[in-house]
UniProtKB/TrEMBL annotation:
Residue ranges constituting the Aminoglycoside phosphotransferase domain according to the UniProt record: 40-214
Natural source organism: Streptomyces wadayamensis
Protein's UniProt name: Aminoglycoside phosphotransferase
Entry-linked InterPro entries: AGP_Transferase (IPR051678), Aminoglycoside_PTrfase (IPR002575), Kinase-like_dom_sf (IPR011009)
Organism classification: Bacteria, Bacillati, Actinomycetota, Actinomycetes, Kitasatosporales
Amino acid sequence: MDDEVEVVVAHSERATLRVGDVYLKVDADRARVDVEVQAMALAPVPTPDVLWHKPSVLALAALRGTTLGRLGGTSTGTSAAWMAAGAAIRQLHEAPLPSWNGRAGRSVVTLAEELDRECRLLVAKGLLPAELVIRNRQVAEAAFRDWTPAFTHGDLQIAHVFLDGDEVTGVIDWSEAGQGDPLYDLATFSLGHEERLGDLLAGYGGHVDLEVVRAWWALRSLLAVRWLSEHGFDPFAPGCEVDVLKSRM
């Protein structure tokens, strides 16, 4: 039987298809594909093999193993697996810096302006109640601080890290990588899975300011709700972004 084409994710900006053991990533922003290839070449953690790369399209080999869950779903894996993920993230953050800024490297001024604009739209469009937005905007304030740049993934969702048992076999989706705030990666990975944060940080090691992690949970969720709603996703599903915001009330 011929391999079927599986649509992994698709919206107006990009799409990922799977055919057998090959993933095809198509991105309207050619520069994002170029960044992904560069970041995977520099990253000190396992990444998918690049089969070929042409303008706007990237072909990658499938990874061995499974993820530790997804946003809105039940987290899986042992404590050791979560610790292994934390150790891999630490390894990335301690690597030599890439030459460019990533999504996690936006300036405090730019980020605050973007967040305030989004908060106004969320209320004006009736997507979220004002008190929920105001409370989480207050929580998000802790993310606006000085930080030491690290090599960050920039979109380190739990579904982007594969493990086989307690071994990290690969990290995918590097198009937002670059210099940035390392706590953004930790917050993104643990978003919606606060109960596993202790295991993740045990593997990561060192001191981590939990107030800043919680601030990034609020900030990322506030910035995501409208975009997700307008691109066919459901941030109101159980355990997803809106529930993350409600948990800070």
